Amino acid sequence: MRQGDYVTRKSYGGDIVFRIERIEHLSAILRGVDYRLLADAPLTDLTKTAPPAEAIDHPRSGTPEFREAFRRLALAQVQLQEKNQQTVQHKQKVQVLHNSYFEVPGKVLHLDGDPAYLRKCMQLYGELRVPAEGFFIPESQMAEALHRLLPQIKPDIVVITGHDGILKHRLSGGLTNLSSYKNSQNFVNAVHVARQYERNRDALIVVAGACQSHFEALLRAGANFASSPGRILIHALDPLSIAAKLSYTSVKETISMLDIVDLTVTGLDGLGGVETRGSYRMGVPGIQHAEESV
Q1: What is the pLDDT of residue 271?
Q2: 52 burial class (0-12, 13-18, 19+ CB within 10 angstroms)?
Q3: Which pLDDT tens digit goes with each residue over 84-107?
Q4: Alpha helices, DSSP H only, in 173-214?
Q5: pTM metric for this prediction
Q6: For residue 84, which of 275, 282, 245 has the smallest C-alpha distance?
């Protein structure tokens, strides 16, 4: 077994494909390929497996569930554009000189504890026309990084994600204790920094967590949406789906998790949150020159 090998765990029936992050003595630190799960296992429990067909492009976005979520995101953007155009045409005679408009979608700051996940997310943000800046930041350094990045980027939406998991040998308090999780405390610390920067949950939307994260603690810290109510594994791209939807939801509209659950792979057991206003704005008339931007 070497760093970078793709493996499964015998004790779990080989249900999840991992990549070996590093080897420590006779154990390996593992990162999920499709799920934002951080785990460890003795080397004797591991079985090497062939790299997934999409390993270069991992996490895999070719699953039917995510393809459907992505289709719905793209469709929602088209419907929003049609609605805007109808609004402009309806009011044009008395109020608007030009039969056009421009869009100001919400800007995303995406912090990810996995560089491969980050690359894929940035590609998909681009395909969805979501303005986004992404940074690979180890989970333990996210809070410190946000102190610098928030005033620099000035985002409307912050995604704080990476890898997490419930420790095998938990301390007293069980699942209510943050110490029972690999990275939930780091995510909570980062959310606290975001809320120190902007307390209003509509002015700065926070999406936080990964697989099996402490959902309640993240919400108490100030996250709008977080994982994982059911302490389950979440798909690697679920946080992106929520952020992309918020980016193209009007500031005049409020959405809840019930409105966007079909945009995620893992549903309400995987992610939850509180009612939140979108961050998209329509402007008129249309901007005529490329150098003019908002």
Answers
A1: 97
A2: middle
A3: 777 776 665 545 455 578 899 999
A4: 184-197
A5: 0.84
A6: 282
Cβ neighbours for 198, distance < 8 A, ≥ 6 positions apart: 150, 204
The neighbouring-strand residues paired with 7 are: 18, 48
CATH of domain 64-283: 3.40.50.2300
Cβ neighbour number for residue 82 with a 10 Å cutoff: 10
Model confidence over 232-260: pLDDT tens digits? 999 888 999 999 999 999 999 999 999 99
DSSP 11-48: GGTT-S-EEEEEEETTEEEEEESSB-BEEEEEGGGEEE
Q: What six digits make up the tokens of 248? A: 């193209």
CA distance 239 to 257: 12
Both tokens of 233, joined, read 């594994």
Instruction: Please enumerate, as own/partner, the contacts of 13-20 that have beta carbons within 8 Å and a separation of 24 or more.
Output: 14/47, 14/49, 16/233, 17/49, 17/52, 20/46
Domain ranges of the chain: 6-57, 64-283
Q: How far apart are CA 178 and CA 189, in angstroms?
A: 11
